[in-house]
Structures are given as C-alpha cells and as structure tokens.
Amino acid sequence: MPEIIRSPITHHVNITLLGQSYQVPCQPEEQVLLMEAVALLNQQLEATRAGGRTMGKERAALMVAINLAADLQRARQELQARDDQLNAVAARLRRLVDMGKGAE
C-alpha cells in the first residue's frame, strides 16, 4: 500500500513498482486516484511478469504502458461514440419539440 507523506507545502506519495521505490508529488485531492492507479499498474506488472515469459523490468513496464494506453484510447473512442449518440438524441428531441410547438 502506498505511503502518504504530508508536508506543509507539498504532498508526496511513496510508491513501489517492480521493487523500486519512488516518491511522487501529488495534489491532495488526487491522492486516492493516484493510489488506485499505482495498484492497477502493480497488478498489471505482476500479471505481465507472471505470464511465463522471462522479461526485464523495463520491457514489462513498457508492455503494460502500451496495454494501458490502448485501454485508454478505447475508452476515449467509446466515450466519443456515446457523446455522438447523445447529441443525435438531443437534436431529435429538439426537432420533435419544435414540431410540437408548431402544431399548437
């Protein structure tokens, strides 16, 4: 579990990835999000390294980064598609309301 270090000026979170410790500056309101991201990254790194193939830490980190970036891109595309659908529905509703006003 990441350790939170607080100072009057800056908040830092101590994290460990693949046995290497890092101190990451973070806004107080983003600490939970950062800790969740670290947990996800550690989970993915462990799964990648446990996959049977022998690979170095840097290669494992790169593979996880590529997979997470692809997941992010898919999520962005899905979000854009939903935005497009909502905009189409909103436009249709506006047309229907306008037609209803014209019938009054």
UniProtKB/TrEMBL annotation:
Predominant localisation class: cytoplasm
Q: Which residues form a coiled coil?
A: 62-96
Under Pfam families, the record lists: ZapA
Q: Which organism is it from?
A: Acidithiobacillus ferrooxidans
**Which GO terms are recorded in the biological process aspect for this UniProt protein?**
division septum assembly; FtsZ-dependent cytokinesis; septin ring assembly
> What is this protein's function per UniProt?
Activator of cell division through the inhibition of FtsZ GTPase activity, therefore promoting FtsZ assembly into bundles of protofilaments necessary for the formation of the division Z ring. It is recruited early at mid-cell but it is not essential for cell division.
Highest taxon above the source species: Bacteria
Listed InterPro entries = Cell_div_ZapA-like, Cell_div_ZapA-like_sf, Cell_div_ZapA_N
Extract the PANTHER family matched here: CELL DIVISION PROTEIN ZAPA
The UniProt keyword set, sorted, is: Cell cycle, Cell division, Coiled coil, Cytoplasm, Septation
Name of the protein this chain belongs to: Cell division protein ZapA
**Localization (cell):** Cytoplasm
User: Quaternary structure per UniProt?
Assistant: Homodimer. Interacts with FtsZ.
Key word Coiled coil present: yes
Q: Which GO terms describe its cellular component?
A: cell division site; cell septum; cytosol
Q: State if Repressor is listed as a keyword.
A: no
